[in-house]
Design brief:
By secondary structure, the chain is α/β, with parallel strands linked by helices. Helix content is 39%, strand content 15%. Helix 8 links the parallel strand 1 and strand 2. Helix 2 packs antiparallel against helix 9, helix 3 crosses helix 9 and helix 5 crosses helix 7. The longest helix is centred in the middle third of the chain and has 17 residues.
C-alpha cells in the first residue's frame, strides 16, 4: 500500500535522532514469558470488531506468538493503528503546547520512553509524534473543560493502544486508578509496555492499571472517584454501532468525557452518531463537538476529525 511506503519513508527523517536506551534484558525475558504463557487465555470476539481491527488482531497475535515484540513500534501494522510518527501536523500541536502556560508540565510528559523502540520525532527528538499528539489531546481536554489534569483520579480508556496514554497519566498522578479496555492481544501488548515502566499493571481491578478485554467484567464498573474520566482516541469510533452503544452506560458514569473520532469509518457515519450521543446526554453533561484544527487526515485520505468533550453538570 502507498500509505505503508510513505510511513516507511517518513521514518528515515529520524535517522539522525538518538537511539532509544536498551531495555533490561532480564526483565524483558520475564515479561515476554508471562505473555507467552497467557496468550491463549482469551479469544477475540470478531463480531465486536470491524474488518480493519480483525485483521490487526490477527497480525498482533502472530507477533506475540513469535515473542518478537522488543521493537513492536517499528512494525508497520502497529504504526498504522497505534503510532503516528513524523507527521508535520504534529509540529503544530507541539507549538500549541509550547505556547500553553502549562508547557513546563507538558514538556516533561512528552519525554519519550524506550519501550517498543519508538521512532523519535525528527523536529523534537526528545519525544515521538505519537506522544506529542497524546499530550496535545490532554491539553485540549484541560482547556475546554477547565480542569487540572492532576485532579483526575480515575480513568477508563476504551481502546488504550499500546498503553501510551496510561503511561502518561502515571506521570500526571502516580496514584491514578486506570482501566484499559481492549482485546486480549492488545492488553498483552499494554502489559509489556507498562510493566517496563515499573507500573502496577495486571488483569485484576486490584492493580492500579487494570487490563480488561471481557465486557462482562466491566458491566458493573464503578468509578473510584468523582473526578473520573472516560477517554477514547479513535477507538470507540472504529467499532460497530451496536457494540459501542453497550458502553454508553460506562461513559455516563464518569465526570469527564474525551473522545476523538474521524468523520466516518468504513460504513459508519461517526459525526451523526456522536451528534445523537450529545443530544442523548445533554441533560446531564455540557458537551462540545470540536473540529480538530490540526489533523485533517493524510494526502491519500483527506477527512475531518473531531473531539467530543463533556463535563457532568452535577455529579
Amino acid at each position: 500500500m502507498i500509505s505503508n511506503i510513505i510511513r516507511k519513508l517518513n521514518s528515515y527523517l529520524s535517522i539522525w535522532c538518538k537511539k532509544n536506551k536498551p531495555l533490561n534484558t532480564i526483565k524483558d525475558s520475564i515479561i515476554k514469558k508471562y505473555i507467552k504463557d497467557n496468550i491463549g487465555k482469551n479469544k477475540i470476539i470478531r463480531k465486536n470488531l470491524k474488518k480493519t481491527h480483525n485483521i490487526f488482531n490477527r497480525k498482533l497475535y502472530s507477533l506475540l506468538q513469535r515473542n518478537d515484540i522488543k521493537n513492536f513500534l517499528r512494525e508497520n501494522f502497529i504504526q498504522k493503528m497505534f503510532f503516528l510518527h513524523n507527521r508535520f501536523f504534529v509540529y503544530s500541536e507541539l507549538n500549541n503546547l509550547r505556547k500553553n502556560k502549562e508547557w513546563p508540565t507538558y514538556k516533561k510528559l512528552i519525554e519519550e520512553e524506550p519501550t517498543g523502540n519508538p521512532i523519535r520525532y525528527f523536529l523534537y527528538p526528545n519525544s515521538s509524534g505519537n506522544r506529542i499528539n497524546h499530550v496535545y489531546h490532554l491539553s485540549v481536554l484541560s482547556k475546554e473543560l477547565n480542569i487540572t489534569l492532576t485532579k483526575i483520579k480515575t480513568v477508563f480508556e476504551f481502546g488504550a493502544g499500546y498503553g501510551c496514554m496510561a503511561q502518561i497519566f502515571s506521570k500526571i498522578n502516580h496514584k491514578i486508578n486506570y482501566t484499559c479496555f481492549d482485546t486480549h492481544y492488545v492488553n498483552l501488548l499494554q502489559y509489556y509496555y507498562l510493566k517496563h515502566s515499573n507500573l502496577d499493571v495486571g488483569f485484576s481491578n486490584k492493580n492500579n492499571f487494570n487490563l480488561v478485554s471481557n465486557q462482562k467484567k466491566i458491566k458493573n464498573y464503578k468509578k473510584k472517584s468523582s473526578k473520573s474520566l472516560f477517554i477514547a482516541n479513535w477507538s470507540l469510533s472504529e467499532t460497530p454501532i451496536n457494540f459501542r452503544k453497550k458502553f454508553e452506560p460506562i461513559i455516563v458514569k464518569n465526570h469527564f468525557i474525551f473522545i476523538s473520532f474521524q468523520e466516518s469509518f468504513e460504513d459508519i457515519d461517526n459525526l451523526k452518531y456522536f451528534q445523537k450521543l450529545k443530544s442523548k446526554i445533554s441533560n446531564r453533561y455540557n458537551v462540545k463537538i470540536l473540529k480538530n484544527k490540526f489533523y485533517t487526515g493524510n494526502i491519500i485520505n483527506k477527512h475531518n476529525h473531531y473531539f467530543f468533550v463533556g463535563k457532568k453538570i452535577k455529579d
